[in-house]
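Re: that backbone. Tokens:
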């Protein structure tokens, strides 16, 4: 979205999108709900006696669109897009934020358990914030004195933007490097691959001639990115989509490569072979800026079009056409994706192979080679660059995932059951945690229960919060102050739109309060949240008090460009784009982006595939939900009331399954029951099920098959069978 997008443009964009995708596209766009809600018939706020206040949406984990809340008598009556804010409009989730804020299931007060863990009923008893925070502080001090500060783990799930920085600061100031987040299964592995190579792709600009989505479906995962792609398509930009699913974006593609999940690396290496062998690579860029080209060239020779077709199920001629288009219709831009390519046991290497296409075709900017205008930034509240190194040796993941530990400033959380069982973690503080985010999640549920002491903050008394000793009510994004928002060259500091329900508090506020009780007041501005914003804003010479009075934000002038560096280069050991990674070599990992079959597949485990012949693909988004969130939002639940298994009509017919049938999806480790959804969205031979449903918890089926480099699970490439219930 651009800042000058207006409502009529949005409506036109939507119509264009539906027209451009054809009837099936329209059906898919609207399947199970709406891509973007139509605007409610506007009634002028002045006429209705409402006051317009502005805040930020965090109903999904990365959008942060602007919301205008219309407020009367201290309550929000309705919401609409914040017209002047750079990010928007509101999707179906943003338009349903009222049903989150005023949901009767909201956790309103701090509570403590009065019955032992493992009891059916925790015996929750309301307590004061003072008692809750004093108890947490006393327990953490006790654990620190007895075992060491590193035995306390600090974790942030989703929502994440507000709690992450203060929580990480709290962990490090307390003396524990063991701070982790839900990024242990989200975007970090993809970022690791880019770091190991030297860089990611170019963003979409007016110069872009080809866009690659490998894979991503913004209409369902990040609605506002959709328009940028539609606009590019309308001006003639070519679109390559790599995705097992026939998504809306795939239907708009010039070339859609529909691959077997988990074989992305083989596909990328096959494309690289075409580009290299046909002389379509950027020889000048490669000679100046790429390492390992000759080894890479030799390695890709085994990925002939025929072999790639056999591995990936992508027709050879389509793969070759995509490689030629990619290499000749430049510049090529990538729309960054989070996890589809890295939810496999060879995920980082697969993603590195995809990234290698960027390097050999020179579709990447060399940092420091040209003058550049620095972006707007504020001081990092976490200060991890100074605080983490002295604690690094005490990380629980240091020996298990050494590449991750070198590259990522938070621990890899996916071995939580092992950390707890081995006594490496004894207590924890969790904001928005959910044990269902992990494969074989019953083991994580047990790990939470086995901690000597655990406290959590959330909007709801979720099944995970039920495992805590103390629960704290968290304020939503419309009820709290901050955090600082930067959009382009504009800076915003949202104030609460309405008072929080019950005694809910903003995460920064209660974390600062806890820090004081841990004797860390001096490191947390003595609990003064506004003073912490002032400290962060120092580089911009702004004060929080001034900024919060500017609902349209403050423009930060660009200033003079930074001149080209006299030592330009990538942030790799060689300062070049590395097809042979120096960091992987140091850790005795194959430095080339080698391909390996998924740990469970028709190829690697043919006997298992006789019983479970379908590839199980989980973890993608639907428009109305984000992971496990919003199932209790009545407006959104209406759009998608039941868990469903997307299955291709051919696979369904072979099993006598009809639309809407109750089906059992079974894998080697368990099964779930859901409704059959017969759809061309699902590739023949591959079924997809959405995660986060308590009554059809697919992570009781997925396995703990982790990528040894990133620690990521294989959510998208295991095996299963589907039958009528
Ligand atoms: S994309 Fe939707 S849910 Fe996400 S911030 Fe924007 S309106 Fe909210």
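Recovered sequence:
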């Amino acid at each position: 979205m651009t800042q000058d997008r207006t409502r009529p443009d949005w409506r036109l964009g939507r119509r264009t999108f539906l027209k451009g995708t054809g009837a099936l596209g329209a059906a898919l766009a609207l399947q199970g709900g709406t891509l973007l809600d139509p605007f409610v018939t506007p009634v002028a706020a002045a006429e209705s006696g409402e006051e317009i206040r502005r805040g930020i949406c965090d109903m999904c984990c990365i959008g942060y669109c602007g919301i205008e809340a219309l407020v009367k008598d201290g309550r929000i009556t309705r919401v609409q897009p914040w017209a002047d804010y750079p990010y928007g409009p509101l999707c179906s989730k943003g338009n349903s934020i009222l049903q989150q804020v005023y949901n009767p299931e909201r956790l309103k007060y701090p509570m403590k358990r009065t019955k032992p863990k493992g009891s059916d009923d925790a015996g929750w008893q309301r307590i004061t914030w003072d008692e809750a925070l004093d108890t947490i502080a006393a327990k953490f001090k006790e654990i620190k004195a007895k075992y060491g500060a590193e035995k306390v783990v600090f974790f942030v799930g989703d929502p994440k933007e507000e709690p992450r920085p203060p929580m990480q600061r709290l962990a490090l100031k307390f003396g524990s490097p063991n701070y982790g987040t839900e990024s242990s299964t989200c975007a970090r592995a993809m970022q690791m691959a880019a770091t190991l190579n030297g860089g990611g792709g170019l963003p979409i600009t007016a110069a872009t001639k080809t866009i690659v989505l490998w894979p991503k479906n913004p209409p369902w995962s990040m609605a506002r990115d959709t328009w940028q792609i539609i606009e590019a398509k309308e001006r003639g930009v070519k679109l390559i989509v790599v995705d097992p699913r026939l998504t809306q974006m795939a239907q708009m593609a010039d070339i859609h490569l529909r691959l077997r999940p988990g074989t992305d690396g083989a596909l990328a290496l096959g494309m690289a072979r075409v580009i290299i062998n046909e002389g379509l690579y950027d020889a000048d860029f490669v000679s100046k800026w790429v390492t390992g080209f000759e080894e890479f060239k030799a390695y890709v020779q085994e990925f002939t079009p025929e072999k790639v077709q056999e591995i990936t199920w992508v027709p050879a001629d389509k793969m070759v056409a995509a490689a030629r288009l990619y290499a000749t219709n430049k510049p090529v831009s990538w729309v960054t994706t989070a996890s589809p390519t890295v939810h496999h046991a060879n995920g980082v290497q697969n993603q590195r192979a995809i990234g290698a296409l960027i390097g050999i075709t020179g579709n990447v900017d060399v940092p420091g080679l040209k003058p550049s205008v620095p972006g707007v930034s504020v001081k990092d509240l976490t200060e991890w660059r100074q605080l983490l190194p002295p604690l690094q040796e005490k990380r629980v993941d240091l020996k298990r995932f050494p590449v991750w530990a070198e590259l990522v400033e938070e621990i890899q959380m996916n071995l939580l059951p092992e950390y707890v069982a081995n006594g490496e973690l004894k207590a924890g503080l969790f904001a928005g945690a959910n044990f269902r985010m992990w494969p074989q999640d019953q083991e994580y549920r047990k790990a939470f229960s086995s901690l000597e002491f655990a406290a959590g903050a959330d909007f709801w008394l979720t099944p995970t919060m039920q495992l805590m000793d103390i629960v704290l009510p968290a304020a939503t994004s419309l009820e709290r102050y901050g955090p600082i928002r930067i959009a382009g060259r504009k800076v915003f500091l949202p104030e609460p739109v309405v008072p929080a329900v019950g005694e809910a508090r903003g995460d920064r506020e209660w974390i600062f309060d806890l820090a004081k009780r841990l004797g860390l007041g001096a490191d947390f501005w003595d609990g003064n949240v506004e003073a912490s914003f002032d400290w962060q804003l120092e580089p911009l010479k702004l004060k929080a008090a001034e900024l919060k009075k500017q609902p349209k934000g403050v423009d930060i002038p660009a200033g003079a460009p930074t001149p080209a560096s006299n030592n330009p280069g990538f942030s790799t050991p060689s300062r070049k784009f590395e097809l042979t990674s120096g960091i992987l070599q140091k850790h005795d990992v194959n430095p080339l982006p080698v391909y390996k079959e998924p740990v469970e597949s028709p190829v690697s485990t043919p006997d298992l595939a006789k019983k479970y012949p379908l590839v199980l693909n989980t973890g993608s988004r639907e428009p109305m939900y984000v992971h496990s969130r919003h199932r209790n939002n009545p407006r959104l639940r209406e759009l998608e009331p039941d868990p469903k298994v997307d299955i291709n009509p051919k696979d369904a017919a072979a099993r006598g399954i009809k639309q809407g049938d109750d089906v059992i999806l079974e894998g080697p480790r368990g099964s779930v029951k859901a409704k059959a959804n017969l759809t061309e969205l699902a590739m023949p031979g591959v079924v997809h099920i959405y995660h986060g449903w308590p009554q059809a918890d697919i992570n009781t089926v997925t396995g703990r098959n982790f990528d040894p480099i990133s620690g990521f699970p294989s959510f998208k490439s295991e095996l299963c069978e589907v039958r009528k219930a």
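Residues 200-363+570-586 form a domain with the Dimethylsulfoxide Reductase; domain 2 fold (CATH 3.40.228.10). Residues 151 and 424 are 6 Å apart (CA to CA).
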